[in-house]
Write a structure and sequence with these properties.
alpha+beta, Gyrase A, domain 2, globular, single chain, 16 helices, OB fold (Dihydrolipoamide Acetyltransferase, E2P), 594 residues, five-stranded mixed beta barrel, 29% helix, eight-stranded mixed sheet
């Protein structure tokens, strides 16, 4: 028989009952975690979002209550009133916040029952992610998941405290806006009122926050929802959250200082971790040393270029690559000479994923060098390679020759794989750095045109403005990315605030005046009315939260995430809609199989 709460009023959360409450009568409510019958005395662990407390149903208080408690099952919802007592000596549970006390129940109300569970509500549950997402309301009851969501809430609060303290104003920007492609595919929303026309969900608040700078709100921030219709993976969602901010009358260092204050506050207040001085590394240095613009600096295994040696050697594969404008790079896997031929073959297949056509190797052993390629190098050339790689007995060198893009991608990923294999990564470290001096543009081989590396509203370095139309490949951007343990957690730039420079950038990336006006006319219009110099940044909140919580996937720090295929298994979205709804929108859906 289910009961109503009636006049019952909860006095405590389960996880907050403590020794201070001994002798008090309390009322708690929640879900039955476990029930144990010990010779007529029934012990129940009652759980809510704050934790668990042990409830004792004893015949010394009520035989009827004990019989009622024996019928409790997992995840029944109950309310209990009783006296807080200290647990008998030797029965304390140090794993629980409430482990020194228990509640002797005097009243019990069964508020709702539960069907048999598809999986246990416990942290070490062995169940597929699809089942967890389908029954997300159960998954979120697990201690670890509940703590993730509460941690995210606290992250929001600290973020707002920091920006408010720094004089920023929180302003919301629209969800329904104009389609302005910014690198990914837009989600489109058909308009019922304007047949054949569409809103787009924003990929970011970029254009609106720039317009806010023109409007005079010189310090804006927002915890913003963003939408991108792109292929997904563990760290991507079709809808995600950014910590977004913009400032007027600033240079790069001003924006970076605010970003550092935020990150330091988050780590100190949420994890009690101090972040020291944050180094700055140029894009070129990062690519040369690590092969990526988001290097993990918690370990070595740095890359060394040996193209100058390769172009002189007799190894045709290396020399031909060097002669065609490619590069040859190597890394020294210290102590790796013990790798078997099968392990090396597996690593060769691995770099093939990133476009490498092969993986050359040289083992340095007590009996000399072991490698199929040593015979193609003179003694002087080989000694030069060994010196450059600081090779010693017991090491193995891995070498890749190809285009700069392929070599860097292959070796950057190999570097991470080897570090994991050898246990070189200290998960307790928090290594943060800035990457600056990015190229303004990158060349799209397929479309044979320049593209903005970040976005087309990023300002070029002042000394490079004159080269925009004559040598765009050499132009550097006033952009900056923050990298944490090999993951880009945020990025931004000083923006273009002059219409003439913005028009030149559009021209470089192949946008005609008509196209620029059609896509970004409202921004160009705003720039004509006294736009101040401004810049900003956005943090990927989901990714940052996942890193701080030690989670592999951002789905574990989002309450209701989509799958890698963009589905919500809880609600069944996306789904079909009624024919009448489509007719109102003047939309006809073709059979996907047609």
């Amino acid at each position: 028989m289910l009961e109503h709460l009636g006049s019952f009023k909860r006095t405590h959360y389960c996880g907050e009952v403590s020794t201070k409450d001994i002798g008090k009568r309390v009322r708690v409510a929640g879900w039955v975690d476990t029930t144990r019958d010990h010779g007529g005395v029934v012990f129940t662990d009652l759980r809510d979002r704050t934790g668990k407390v042990q409830v004792v149903f004893s015949p010394e208080i009520s035989e009827e209550l004990v019989e009622k408690a024996k019928k409790l099952k997992h995840e029944f919802v109950i309310a209990v009133e009783g006296e807080v007592r200290r647990r008998p000596e030797g029965t304390e549970n140090p794993k629980l916040k409430t482990g020194e006390v228990e509640i002797y129940a005097e009243k019990l109300q069964i508020l709702n029952k539960s069907l048999p569970l598809p999986f246990p509500v416990e942290d070490e549950v062995k169940v597929g992610e699809e089942t967890r997402l389908k029954f997300r309301f159960l998954d979120l009851r697990r201690k670890k998941m509940a703590e993730n969501i509460i941690f995210r809430h606290r992250l929001y609060q600290v973020t707002r405290e920091v920006f408010n303290r720094e004089g920023f104003i929180e302003i919301e920007t629209p969800y329904l806006t104009k389609s302005t492609p910014e690198g990914a595919r837009d989600f489109l929303v058909p308009s019922r009122i304007y047949p054949g026309k569409f809103y787009a969900l924003p990929q970011s608040p970029q254009l609106f926050k720039q317009i806010l700078m023109v409007a005079g709100f010189d310090r804006y921030y927002q915890i913003a929802r963003c939408f991108r219709d792109e292929d997904l993976r563990a760290d991507r969602q079709p809808e995600f959250t950014q910590i977004d901010f913009e400032m007027s009358f600033v240079a790069e260092r001003d924006v970076m200082d605010v970003a550092e204050k935020l990150l330091r506050s988050l780590y100190k207040e949420l994890l009690d971790v101090e972040i020291g001085e944050i180094p700055i590394m140029t894009y070129d240095e990062a690519m040369n040393r690590f092969g990526t613009d988001r290097p993990d600096t918690r370990f070595g295994l740095e890359l060394k270029e040996i193209t100058d040696i390769a172009e002189r050697c007799n190894f045709k594969v290396f020399r031909s690559v060097a002669e065609k404008g490619g590069i040859v790079k190597a890394l020294n896997f210290k102590g790796g000479a013990k790798l078997s031929r099968k392990e090396i073959d597996d690593l060769t297949k691995f770099v093939g994923i990133y476009g490498a056509k092969g993986l050359a190797w040289i083992k340095i052993t007590e009996n000399g060098l072991q490698s199929p390629i040593v015979k193609f190098f003179s003694e002087g050339e080989m000694n030069e390679i060994l010196r450059r790689l600081e090779a010693e007995v017991g090491d193995i060198l891995f070498l890749v020759a190809d285009s700069k893009e392929v070599v860097n991608s292959a070796l950057a990923n190999l570097r991470l794989k080897l570090a994991r294999m050898a246990g070189l990564i200290d998960d307790s470290k928090v290594n943060v750095l800035w990457i600056v001096d990015f190229p303004m543009f990158e060349w799209n081989e397929e479309e044979e045109r320049w593209e903005a590396l970040h976005h087309p509203f990023t300002s070029p370095r002042e000394e490079d403005v004159e080269k925009l139309l004559t040598d765009p490949g050499s132009v550097r951007a006033r952009a900056y990315d923050m990298v944490l343990n090999g993951v880009e957690i945020g990025g931004g730039s000083i923006r273009i605030h002059r219409e003439d420079i913005q028009e030149k950038v559009f021209k470089v990336i192949g946008l005609s005046e008509e196209e620029a006006q059609e896509r970004f006319g409202f921004l160009l219009e705003a720039l004509r009315y006294g736009a101040p110099p401004h810049g900003g940044m956005a943090f990927g909140l989901d990714r940052l939260c996942a890193i701080m919580r030690g989670e592999e996937s951002i789905r574990d720090v989002i309450a209701f995430p989509k799958t890698q295929r963009g589905q919500c298994l809880l609600t069944g979205a996306p789904d079909t809609v009624r024919k009448e709804q489509l007719e109102e929108l003047h939309i006809e859906v073709k059979n996907p199989e047609d």
